Amino acid sequence: MLERFLDVLNSNGLIAAFAFIGLLMLVCNLAARYLTGGRIHGSAIAIAAGLLLSYIGGVATGGTDGLSDIAMFSGLGIMGGSMLRDFAIVATAFGVDVAELKKAGMNGVIALFAGLAVPFTVGAAIAYAFGYTDPVAVTTIGAGAATYIVGPVTGTAIGAGSDLIALSIAIGLVKSISVMIFTPIVAKRIQLNNPSAALVFGGMMGTTSGVAAGLAATDARLVPYGAMTATFYTGFGCLLGPSIFYLVVRSIVGG
Amino acid sequence: MVIYGVALLAACLLVGKLLGSLLGMVMGIDADVGGVGIAMLLLVFCVYRLQRMGCFDDKAQAGLSFWSSLYIPIVVAMAASQNVLGAVSGGPVALVGGLVVVAISFALVPVIARLGRGKYAKPMDPPESTPREDRHA
Fold first, then answer.
1. Assessment of whether the complete model's pTM goes beyond 0.90
2. Are A191 and B101 a contacting pair at CB < 8 A?
3. Of A163, A198, A209, B42, which is least packed with CB atoms within 10 Å of its CB?
4. How many whole angstroms separate alpha carbon A66 and alpha carbon A245?
């Protein structure tokens, strides 16, 4: 009986994922209403629960795809994969106010460049402080502090080893996950309550998954604004990382 | 029909990704530069024009709002399939670096949001305590 049930789950991965996520959202929404009195959004709790489940999945299987490495949850990888995620992100643009977009456009562009310069510089400085003095290592870790895609792309382009690439992915992951968790907590303090600030936020943080999840847990109406600038971030990061950023690091650190 | 809305969404995403990868090719990097962002701008533009022409009915809009309301569940599924273990076990550089970068970037958001505007943009109405999933529909 149980075996048959698991068979059904395994062979209908995406459908099982819909049912599972629906159940998880229900539990988290109830927890938000009755345990926190509505102070914390159900979606924030659900995202945190998802990350916790990812950790458990990673410990249980030793794989890199969180809970979806367990066969019966493999559909989570499809549901949360980049194809459906991008599809749903674009759909959120349906609620965008064109006037807001025009008003805040320039700040979004400024944020995009500041958002890349800051993690490059800070990440590189921290790498140096931890004893990485080779320009390739410093650049790769600094690029990882932008996103976990910019890091590996930059590292590969300038010939970094796989240990450095893994480290740059790890730093990008820490960034993305902490953006998911801390955004709803600090939202009020950084005045993240309007489309203009959300556009800047997307450009500053850049991690599409972190920005999207963090804003979803703060106020779902802000998601399209943040997601729009964030999607440009990784592309520009991959462009600037192995070129200008590497040249600057090499001229400072030498080698 | 609902499928018209879904098809418009799909077409925007495909065109956006195509333009994004072409932009990447022009810039000499093997990556999609802002494809999703381009797709979003495209969708905003198309919906605006179609609504003005009066040929984008409620049913077609339902195809869009369905996918936009599935957004949060999809993000939860994404969170559940991340390499969290890898992030935690990446060592102190990863942990310290990631957290410090995020803290500084958070602090800069209000500074840059204020630039150029002089005045801060008007906050939206406070969200309801329990978010309705179809709010931005």
1. no
2. no
3. A163
4. 32
